[in-house]
Amino acid sequence: MKIRYLSAIIVIFSTIIFLIALLFLHSNIVGNRILATILAIILFIVLNYIVIRYWVSREIYEKVRTIYKNIYSFKVSKIDLKQRIKASVLGLDQAKDEVNEWMEENNKNLDKMIALEQYRKEYIGNVAHELKTPIFNVQGYISTLLDGAMEDPHLANKYLLRAEAAIDRLIAITHDLDTITQLELKEVPLEISIFDITNLIREVMDSLELKAQARNVVIHLQQQDAVFVQADKVRIRQVLVNLIENAIKYSKEKDGEVRIKMFDMEDQELIEISDHGIGIEEKDINRVFERFYRTDKARSREYGGTGLGLAIVKHIIEAHNQTINVRSKMGEGTVFGFTLKKIVAHL
User: Fold this and answer.
1) How far is CA 114 from the centre of its chain?
2) What is the mean pLDDT of residues 333-343?
């Protein structure tokens, strides 16, 4: 019922009550006129209170109570809801505050859902694109061979090698997708052990030496002393390979340099891998760990990779309950840093 109708009803009932009080006042029921006046006023106030309370309860309070109940049915269990509504005295200010709180919470959830939906669309599009390229390459090479290139041994070998490379890329993408899914679902338990992280870095540097030489990049390790950490050695090796290989790829094409530094942080060890390459734009910094996200798609595909490496790195570090960060300036280079739990004393 609208407010103007409610106001009209209250005025009408007040008038009726007032007339009843006047009638009572001029009647002979009470001989004392002063006492009759007092009783008439009390009767007028009481009846007005009853009528107004009834209509306010019916038209405002109960409706607000219903809204309040509906909101809380999404926030608490039915048992808690019944106990709260039964025991509480609901005020309009309280209802307003909680409705506002509920609206803000739902708006935040809606924003998250919109962001997740956008991410899902981008992710599906990226997966389709990454798979489509090598599949079409294989299809093209096989079609060329079937169209007559098989008769030329040199061409046949050339296209078969290219088809093999495209298939290897497909295998790498599916393997990385499987790895990142297992890490997210925590289906791969970490094999925690104590090892010398300095020695592991040297091993990774040796394995990537040829790639570094091919791009005229020099890798420097600042730390020389043994530092023992507690982590999954195989997974941390995967992290180091990915980060150092990325630093080699994106270093300057002439006289490039990759530096690896380690910092003592009491119960943790911070490992930083930096290059002096092209850098990452500020708008891309927060997205570099997303699946298939590439800051420079053309250049990234030129250097190879599945586009999942940094996403896997992030999941591995977070699985160790540690942190990873990145900072970069365009034209100056990029620094990736991650922490590991350090063993202070190791025999």
Assistant:
1) 12
2) 93
